[in-house]
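Quick log. Single chain, no ligands specified.
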Amino acid sequence: LTPEYNLTNTKNAITFLYYGAKQRYQVTLYAAQYAALQTLLEKIKQEQNRLVTSNDIFNITKISDRFFDYSNKVNSVASCDGGRKLLIATNLGLYVSNIKRQQSTDSNKATTFFTTPVKIVNRNNVTQVAVLEEFQSILLLVDKKLYSCPMALLQQEDAGGQYFKKHAKEMVNHVNFFAEGDCNGKRLVVTAHSSSHSIKFFEHEHPMLMEGKKNLKRKIIEVSFDSEPVSISFLKANLCIGCKKGFQIVSVSQKAHEPLLDPADTSLEFALKDMLKPMAIYRVGNMFLLCYSEFAFFVNNQGWRKKESHIVHWEGEPQKFAIWYPYILAFDNNFIEIRKVDTGELVRCVLGEKIRLLQTSSQEILYAYEDARGYDTVASLDFWGK
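-> predicted structure:
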């Protein structure tokens, strides 16, 4: 609950806003006397400070603001060059910004600064970016077409975007979103296709091996499902694809798939309904945490629910997740829920407008939100030293 108040109002009113997406509401209270309202406000501030102090578990650093406005929204980011540069995909192109870290004199934490972004690809609707440094390649999703471009693109800041036009290679089209990661000992690129209810995956070749082989055909494998794919996760030997009819385990070697959840487990009836939205899967110990936009719960390797485990019912309707053990972060449009993985306990919420998760790593979690003037702010969240 977040209080909003106006002390100049003769009615001495205070309004409490509940941000839960499923039952969002507000309640306004009126005090007979101004002094009574003032006393209540002091008590509320004291309790808020106590809660924040007792749950001071993360750091948030604003690293970029007042550059990308409502017409040029930040869609995706990717760090590269050993963490010294950040690529920023937006509605109007691809930008690069240098990352500078300065050690604080009064603590062990380094402060991160971003230089003014410079456009290096002049294309509309750049919705995703990823960097494969070991392959010296940058992946870009532009107008539902997936391109691969050499990392030399980073040195073309004054080229007016011509380098991308000349050297980028279209890999797959009609792509809604993609992901890249390690699976079964291979570095795979996986693309999702909503219209055909399918995914395609392939190994990304090293550019040096592709030199002079213009007609070399890339081996792309397609797997179809009964419903639209909405998420891609990488397991050790398999892919896990979240579809609107449930999580599917895809065998990379056999090009086949089967449901993750075992329908013989009657305690899973709530999760076997159509039109749910399976978003992410995380290994926690010897169990798997399955995150849907509606809830989350644990299952074992056989797809059976851990009987004594809890079910997390999100306050919001998260579209993305990040894990930083022992916490799970759920990104709703208006707030971030931070919960304990093992118990599901809600520890803190971070409020914002039009929040989007951008990137997760072992060092930090990057997300964007819109400020009061309509500009996108990029912020870093981490749990170091907490």
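The mean pLDDT is 87.
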